[in-house]
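SEQUENCE-TO-STRUCTURE ENTRY
===========================

Subject: a protein chain together with a token-level encoding of how that chain folds.

Sequence line: the amino acid chain in single-letter code, read from start to end.

Question of interest: how does this chain fold, as expressed in backbone structure tokens?
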Amino acid sequence: MTADGKPSYLFVDEDPLQLSALRRMLRDVPGTKRMATSGEEALQMAEEEPPSVVVAAYILPGMDGLTLLAALRARTPGLHCALHTTQWPARDMLPPDITVLLKPCPPERMRAFLMSAATEEK
């Protein structure tokens, strides 16, 4: 949550076009939306301002999305996380409390996840 009580979203994808598409698709979703193109950048952004919700691609430079989400959760237990990917990860790799959003994710599905996670945060 931000100081004004609105949710803070962090989107992580190596593809700037994917991040631009997410920004456009979610422009009317209330809250702060920040974008990172690597796991390291996301960790730095989260250190500066912890997010309420993180949506990360699986393939990222330097570390994969599951490793990033685990690192962020170690800092912020209970953080709402989703893996945004083209392929379903192996069941033994996926923690039970991480939502999988398959690409291309319908806008309604992405919005529903974000709004549900933000509501649970309050």
